[in-house]
Amino acid sequence: MPELPEVEVVRRGLQRWVSGRTVASVEIRHARAVRRHLAGAADFADRMVGGTFGPAHRRGKYLWLPVVGTGTSVLAHLGMSGQLLLQPADAPDEPHLRIRFRFAAAATAAGTPTAGTANGTELRFVDQRTFGGLSLHPQLPGDPDGLPDAIAHIARDPLDPAFDEAAFHAALRRRRTTVKRALLDQSLISGVGNIYADEALWRAKLHYDRPTATVTRPRSAELLGHVRDVMNAALAVGGTSFDSLYVNVNGESGYFDRSLDAYGREEEPCRRCGTPIRRRPWMNRSSYYCPRCQRPPARRALPRRG
Fold it and tell me: Which of 24-33, 80-89, 257-266 is the most confident on average?
């Protein structure tokens, strides 16, 4: 599933090419792609026609585009295989095309259509596995970015300037869980998925099963620093692409997979100490770690009965 850096790359593409455009028509090819819009596919299409997209925003793995002047925002979740692609209007349809937005032609100050790059293009939502989707939601009252009320419970992400490190540490210590589970808890910190959790934990020399109650304030601050560093490094090269299902709005893949230190490197030498990286099953996923640099926590003996 795309994580924060991949979703941010898509957001930047939407901001450049889609924000400010007015929707001329919407074609919904698969109702499942708008299943989270409870009023149905026809209502979604009708309410979008004539709407103008505002600035593109992101919180964690969620994207949204406010519809100017309506008090609503289009919420996008890419799921496992969702793609938002900007395509020429005459480009062949993708095999898994689910939704098509056609735009009204942009106009000059004189009121005549322009022939700019964005004209003659359309926004397409393509999703092979149909786990993702688009939906229209009321905006959270008073939120300047038009945050959809459906994701008001999602925590801010570590790249958000308003992210509260002290509150994160306090919540971390209160949770009776382990550090990787906490990193993937979207109500605690958003945008961190399996890949970047493993990478940040490797950099911090923390085992994924370390109890959160044992993480000190300096260690949590160090871990957050590594989370940010990993994500910024991934952003610089367009995210991580292990297959063709993650691309930006222009269909280009990211290259951070070539720089990974832990994830996907089972039996390859640790870049710090040379010990082979191990993979362990974890919550229907895998955790990659160095058994020497990231020593597992000591197991406390259970008290004897009687």
Answer: 24-33
Residue 61 annotated in active site: yes
C-beta separation of 100 from 26 below 8 A? yes
Distance CA 23, CA 34 (A): 17
Alpha carbon dihedral 22, 122, 234, 278, in 10-degree steps, equals 130
Rg of the chain over Cα atoms, rounded to whole angstroms, equals: 22
Is 12 a catalytic site residue? no
Residue type, 47: R
Q: What is the pLDDT of residues 101-134, one digit of tens each?
A: 999 986 544 444 443 344 578 999 999 888 899 9
Domain 4-150 has CATH 3.20.190.10: yes
- The domains of the chain are located at 4-150, 165-289
Which of 2-6, 37-41, 96-100, 179-183 is predicted least confidently? 2-6
Q: What is the pTM of this model?
A: 0.80
- Which phi and psi angles does 172 have, rounded to 5°? -60, -45
Region 259-273: mean pLDDT is 92
Helix and strand numbers, DSSP H then E, in the chain: 6, 10
* Residue of 11, 58, 59, 61 marked active site: 61
Q: Which of 16, 102, 285, 292 is catalytic?
A: 285
Confirm whether 4-150 and 165-289 share one CATH topology: no
DSSP assignment letter at 154: S
How would CATH label the architecture of 165-289?
Orthogonal Bundle (1.10)
User: Catalytic: 88?
Assistant: no
Is 271 a residue of the active site? no
- Distance of alpha carbon 158 from alpha carbon 23, whole angstroms: 33
Q: Please give the backbone phi and psi of residue 235, each rounded to the nearest 5 degrees, phi first.
A: -60, -40
CB 190 within 8 A of CB 59: yes
Residue 195, judged by CB atoms within 10 A of its CB (0-12, 13-18, 19+), counts as buried
Question: What local confidence, expressed as pLDDT, does residue 102 receive?
Answer: 96
